[in-house]
Design goal:
The protein contains eight helices and seven strands, in the order αααβααββαββααββ. With 291 residues, the chain is an alpha+beta fold. The strands form two sheets. A five-stranded mixed sheet has the order 2-4-5-7-6. Strands 1-3 form a two-stranded antiparallel sheet. Helix 2 packs antiparallel against helix 3, helix 4 crosses helix 6 and helix 6 packs antiparallel against helix 8. It starts with a helix and ends with a strand. The relative contact order is 0.07.
Length: 291
Amino acid sequence: MKYLLIILVAINIFLFLKIVAMRLSLKELREDYEERARIHTNTLLTVSSRDRRVRELASTMNETLVKLRDSYNRYENGDQEIKRAITNISHDLRTPLTAISGYLELAQRKEMTPELEKYLQVIEGRTMHMKKLTEELFEYSIIAGGEVTEERKEVNIGRMLEDCIMGYYPSLKERGITPEVDITEEKIVRNLYPSYVERIMNNLVSNALKYSDGDLEISLSDEGKLRVANSSKELSTVDVNKLFDRFFSVESARSNSTGLGLSIVKTFAERMDCSLDASYEDGKIAIEVGF
């Protein structure tokens, strides 16, 4: 009886140590897996345990990791190829368009009939539009690459917004729009990428001009929240949910836009950790960026 008790105690101790060892191995495996998930590496999971089941689990997890990495690499390579293709196509288009613009300018200097002058004006308008679309596409291909080419600096949000609005004065006057502007007297200074902030503001105002039914509201709060709003019968709640998608544009405006303006706004806002929101209510669309 005594020996039996000793054997039972020994078995219990062995089982206890076995359980402790397995728990430690599983903890080691979990921590190793979390580390592999955080960093992009080709190394696989390793375990110090000699337990067959733990080693089989590690082997299965490694097989899954290999498959996930293969899928990720295929996605990343494909994405890079698409970006390179867009960049190359945009670059190839810019050269002939520049040449067309040059010859068009020479043609306009010659004597011409009213009918020919009318045709040349149409060609000039289409050419300028193509150049704009090509530039946007080229710019977006660079932006989507994820590289930040400047350092963060202190940006006076209010002053930059005022400059932006003044820059659009001719376009506003042409559309017959008198904007309602409400910029806080507080000095709003943020440590951001200046060119990103400038592009966000320009794209928001440009987008509002594109869809506006004749009004425009621009405000900057004490908290640094920029709001651009305008009435638009062309938009709906469903459209608002897609406004920041790549290449999305409303049907009626498709011929005048690549649909990249607000997508670029979203990309820049995310890189600066700025909030971004859009809403549509009572026929008015409002887009807000929190700097």
